[in-house]
Recover the amino acids of this structure.
């Protein structure tokens, strides 16, 4: 009886050790904040979405969102956001690393004038499901494009997949009106026809393409 008990105990211990090994092999779940995003949205966002105003904007806002398992964004409702127990400033700060990572993976298309001076940069999503608007608030966005466009950058956001960037000074952004509005009208995920200025003072709207 004693021998049988010892064998059973040894077997049980071996099973527990094996289970512990499997548990340790599982990767830790990422913190919830790693999925948080602050997206630029037009009036098409779902009712009840947690949004924050953009100074000067009439048809565009910032929305709290999270990245889903398939890589698209799901907007947070006001109830979802309140359940987090944090304020908007904290949410935006915690979403910043993911925005920077997304920005690092984007390759601009540079458009030059006849004198070979860069007058515009276009950022495009790699996949149809991607929403690249959160990169606008990435803390290193200005740092990346300031050497080209200066400390004030104009941005058009016709849809979730496309961003147009222009210099604030000596800008030819009005020349791109037809192109920007065309994308906005044809897109299945339109955002806005408004034009924004990003600077050290933050993001604000300065006008709208007609």
């Amino acid at each position: 009886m004693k021998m049988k008990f010892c064998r059973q105990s040894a077997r049980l211990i071996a099973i527990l050790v094996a289970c512990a090994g499997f548990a340790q092999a599982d990767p830790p779940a990422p913190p919830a904040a790693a999925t948080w995003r602050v997206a630029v949205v037009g009036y098409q966002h779902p009712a009840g979405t947690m949004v924050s105003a953009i100074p000067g904007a009439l048809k565009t806002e910032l929305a709290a969102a999270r990245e889903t398992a398939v890589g698209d964004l799901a907007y947070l409702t006001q109830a979802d956001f309140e359940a987090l127990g944090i304020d908007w400033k904290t949410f935006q700060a915690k979403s910043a690393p993911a925005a920077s990572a997304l920005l690092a993976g984007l390759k601009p298309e540079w458009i030059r004038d006849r004198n070979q001076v860069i007058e515009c940069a276009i950022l495009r999503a790699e996949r149809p499901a991607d929403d690249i608007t959160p990169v606008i608030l990435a803390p290193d966005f200005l740092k990346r494009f300031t050497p080209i466009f200066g400390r004030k950058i104009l941005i058009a956001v016709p849809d979730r997949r496309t961003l147009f960037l222009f210099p604030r000074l000596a800008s030819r952004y009005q020349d791109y009106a037809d192109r920007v509005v065309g994308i906005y009208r044809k897109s299945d995920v339109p955002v806005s026809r408004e034009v924004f200025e990003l600077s050290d003072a933050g993001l604000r709207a300065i006008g709208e393409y007609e």
The radius of gyration is 24 Å. Residues 1-7, 12-30 have pLDDT under 50 and may be disordered. Helices lie at 2-25, 78-84, 88-104, 141-149, 177-186. Residues 32-208 form one domain.
